[in-house]
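Hi X.,

You mentioned you wanted examples for the new student's onboarding notes, showing what a folding record looks like when two proteins sit in one file. Here is a clean example. The first protein comes first, with its sequence line followed by its structure tokens.
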Amino acid sequence: MHQSSPVTVMEVPAILNDVEGQSLWQEVQPLLDSDRPCLVLDCSQLQHVDSAGIEVLLRCMEEAMKRDGDVKLAAVSPACAAILELMRVDRVFEIFSTAQEAVRSFRAPGSIEAPVALPWYSELGGLGALKAAS
């Protein structure tokens, strides 16, 4: 696991079944308890995933969304991607080629400046523009 503030990247084990899934959940759960958790699950080592593993992934997403956060998957093998697609889980997660791409896809809070709302009567519009036009 490594932190790329405010995004955490967690490596998924080679096999994601009931036992390994519970182990992963134990590691991930404290990260999801924060406000607006941003988590990337690096699946580059993942070779096999079953329904219990899928359930853990969905549980991670559910907990993150409860706190206005997100979980993204990275480096999913074609075989695991096929399983995610068959179970229609690929529609729930954003999936990226690399962990770095997934990290970059998160926008830092406050990085987008809100447009300045000018009152309707300001000099740039409203009455000022009407007076100039008349």
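Then the second protein repeats the pattern, sequence line and then tokens:
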Amino acid sequence: MSFAPPFFTLPRTGLRMAAATALGLLLSACAALDPGGRKPELPAVPTAAPRTTGSDTPAATEHRRLVTLFGGEYRSSAAELYLNGILARLARTPDSKGDAYRVTILNTQAVNAFALPSGNLYVTRGLLALANDSAEIAAVMAHEIAHVTARHANQRAELEKNAQVISRAASLIQSREKGEEVQASGRRSLASFSRQQELEADQIGVRMIAAAGYDPYGAARFLTSLGRSANLRAALFGQRGQEEQPDILATHPSTPERVRQALAAARQHGAPGIGAGGREEYFNAIDGIDFGDDPNEGFVRGRSFIHPKLGFSFTAPEGFVLENSTQALLGLAAGGAQALRLDNVKLPATTSLETYLGSGWIEGIDASSIRATSLNGIQAALGRARGGEWHFRVAVMRFGADVYRLIFATRNLSPAMDARFIESIESFRPLETEDAQRVRPLRIRIVTASAGDTPATLAQRMAVSEKPVEQFLLLNGLEPGAVLRPEERYKIVVE
């Protein structure tokens, strides 16, 4: 959580949907590979950009914007060298059309990848942690290159433009209702078109990695891990897996469908076992990369959030699962029936916290509930708000040069529930120096299994508090009940 103030000004109507917004922000996996298709779309990608390194070109501007949007650039010379080597092999395949790409690793735990026509290809460190060999990561990058070579962005832009023209014409010639009907039909057509583009990119990607000498089954393996990642993520927040929530407007096909088609495409090139897997080489390239939160944005440790750079800590109520983002700290409990959001704003020192709390940035504030208080020596103000069926407990705290806003949302703000929220608010405190020094970033480490090791014994070495065995299996592409091989190397998460 970087707490850059421009990101955090909530509209008056924003609080009414606070729990739903938190839910959406928590699920921020990649748009190009997202199995459910409900996550935020990537920013608009230019349909064409000159291949140039000039600092003021459209390609350079778009590159800077994307890098900023996704947490900045993550530097790992070993991983960058290895990934660019894979791209060089892919560039020699017929489907790449001779275009050369260069990789940028994005500093975010989200699983994401995309490519631009300018020759820039992006993967996140979260995606690097999920992949398990060279064939898998090659399949991801080939999929993104396929979107560019197949001109999917151009085709989608043209379809969207045509849909808008038809919708406006229907509104003018017939009625507003007819225009809305045509617009809804257009959205369904666009969603279907996007799903077909994803399947096409999968097919081209399998063909590319096979031509480059990689195991063509790597695409199906990674897609399987991607689906399992989405389901584990949902389970951590007490929700159903994405595959159990069909959405006719989903822009991506279901993961099982993509896996089936990727397997069928791989079989066109031979039986399993052909092509290079490159597990050992890939593990060597990613050993030691950061995992999870960016250290500059604070650390989630169980229910606690610790931000050494900004100098404070906070503990959520029992039952909450937290996730950090560049916009805010978010949390869910009871399957989404309760939510929290912690962010910050700039506020003149002359503006009292009570005045700010009642100034209208929150719709439905109960003015009689606003009261000034002190939390562990920090000036604060508390209040309650109501928006539709949601109840909110709100706190604002002046700490350092910023004002921090902590919002709890629940459908039933009983006295016991309110007391839990107040207790959590009161945990917001300055961070002691020794506590700040004690917390360290999480990293991927490659370890060698010994005789007798099991997923459970290696999971015990993982610095994760939620479902460590499940997370170990996911990180290593293993199914439940898997037997580890002595002398085989595996990924774990350590401090």
